[in-house]
Amino acid sequence: MIIRPATLADARDLCAVVRRSIVELCVEDHGNDPALLRAWLRNKRPETAGAWIVHDMNRCVVAEFHGEVGAAGCLRLDGAITLNYVAPRFRFQGVSSAMMRRLEALAQECGNTQCTLLSTATAHRFYLARGYVDNGPAESRFGLSVHPMRKVLGAP
Ligand SMILES: CC(C)(COP(=O)(O)OP(=O)(O)OC[C@H]1O[C@@H](n2cnc3c(N)ncnc32)[C@H](O)[C@@H]1OP(=O)(O)O)[C@@H](O)C(=O)NCCC(=O)NCCS
């Protein structure tokens, strides 16, 4: 596996990974409710993914397995992690842990002392185990309840 910067040519694959990850892995969040899924997936389109990739405030990366995009991540330059999605067939193989290490390193290179994110219910335990703490009350995004979290970088 290599984690590398995403290019515009990755937009379609990045988008497909994010959509599959949401639909198949985040059932704890959307409960297979068609309206919730529709709202969550509405902006997950190749052209939107392309806009995330080229935006000068973002650093999007992909994890590639023998030419196949298996996970996607995105850091905003202010330290917010705005994407961390793994394709179902690469789950539980250490991919998201490696992705988080990369995004946190990027955040530090950009001068940040902390990372923030809005966690799904699905990933909440995963982030707690990686040093993130809850950072305020749950918020609503796309009709879903998400958990603001933060981690001070460089802390043990
Ligand atoms: C939760 C999730 C983010 C973890 O990603 P991943 O690539 O599978 O993560 P890793 O392989 O790096 O680590 C998996 C964790 O699950 C545990 N695990 C491994 N195999 C497992 C299994 N068969 N069943 C349950 N847990 C397992 C590991 O122990 C590890 O946790 P730990 O190191 O704290 O013990 C991912 O599986 C997921 O569901 N993503 C959905 C998209 C999402 O919600 N993204 C976050 C947006 S904010």
Gist of the model:
The chain is of the alpha+beta class.
Give a verbal description of the structure.
- By secondary structure, this protein is of the alpha+beta class.
- The protein has one domain (2-111): Gcn5-related N-acetyltransferase (GNAT) (Aminopeptidase, 3-Layer(aba) Sandwich).
- The protein has six helices and eight strands, in the order βααααβββαβαβββ.
- It is globular, with a radius of gyration of 15 Å.
- The protein binds coenzyme A (COA).
Report the order of strands and helices.
Answer: EHHHHEEEHEHEEE
The CATH C-level name is Alpha Beta
Task: Report the uncertain regions.
Answer: none
Helicity range: 25-40%
Q: So how many helices?
A: 6
Characterize the overall form: globular
Instruction: Determine the structural class based on helices, strands and strand pairing.
Output: alpha+beta
List keywords for this structure.
8 strands; alpha+beta; 156 residues; eight-stranded mixed beta sheet; Aminopeptidase; binds coenzyme A; 31% strand
List the helices and strands and how they pair.
Elements: E1 2-5, H1 11-25, H2 27-30, H3 34-41, H4 46-54, E2 58-65, E3 68-76, E4 80-86, H5 95-109, E5 114-119, H6 121-128, E6 133-134, E7 139-141, E8 144-152
Parallel strand pairs: 4-5
Antiparallel strand pairs: 1-2, 2-3, 3-4, 5-8, 6-8, 7-8
Helix pairs in contact: 1-4
The site of coenzyme A has 20 residues, from helix 1, strand 4, helix 5, strand 5 and helix 6.
